[in-house]
Amino acid sequence: MKTTPVIYITQGQCQISLDPDTEISTILGSCVAACLWDVEARVGGMNHFLLPFGAKAGVGGSLRYGVHSMETLINGLLGKGATRRNLRAKLFGGATMSANLGNIGSDNAKFAQEYLANEDIICVAADLEGPYARRVLFRPTTGHARVMTVRMTDVGVPIDIDAVLPEHRTNDCVLF
């Protein structure tokens, strides 16, 4: 049985692939991932950005910022044979993970949608905002994407590991 190669990206990263067997994956909270692909050239990629813009205009070309991350993704696709008019997009993320973070998730989602509209890139699907983190799997050559929500009750719940796996307890060492 053939396994699908998965490329994992995190905040401030961008990945492009021409391999029809490869998937790109990330986990998002308030960050946004844009998944873009050329429907004819069968090349695509994903970015993962933290904030729409840097603190000051013109500061760094960090991929942590949407404005640079989107440009890098699009230019990378064009460099691999994509044509701008054939680009399609799917957007994910922008959750409100904590009231203390303000509108970061919403700001990221709004930025990504406006950026695509300004660049005349059609967004065919979006799963944005809300209270949940997401795991995204994207097949860059076809545009097929799967998203799984991660509710707060799914993570952070303490588990008594000794009760679950008592046969594996060999000493009193607790690992974090």
Tell me about this structure.
With 176 residues, the protein is of the alpha+beta class. The protein has one domain: 60s Ribosomal Protein L30, Chain: A, CATH 3.30.1330.200. 19% of the residues lie in helices and 31% in strands. It has three helices and nine strands, in the order βββββαβαβββα. The strands form two sheets. A five-stranded mixed sheet has the order 2-5-4-6-7. Strands 1-3-8-9 form a four-stranded mixed sheet, with no helix packed on it. A hairpin with a 4-residue loop joins β8 and β9 (144-150). The longest helix is centred in the middle third of the chain and has 15 residues, at 104-118. It is globular and about 40 Å long. The model is unreliable at 153-176 (pLDDT under 50).
The name of the CATH architecture is 2-Layer Sandwich
Helical segment count: 3
Low-confidence stretches: 153-176
| Elements, N to C (H/E) | EEEEEHEHEEEH
Remind me, CATH topology? 60s Ribosomal Protein L30, Chain: A
Number of strands: 9
Radius of gyration: 18 Å
Q: What about the largest sheet?
A: 5 strands, mixed
Indicate the overall shape: globular
What is the domain total for the residues?
1
Helix content: 10-25%
First-residue to last-residue Cα separation: 35 Å
Arithmetic mean pLDDT: 85
Name of the CATH first level: Alpha Beta
Strand order of the largest sheet: 2-5-4-6-7
**Structural class by secondary-structure content:** alpha+beta
**What portion of the residues fall into strands of 2 or more residues?**
25-35%
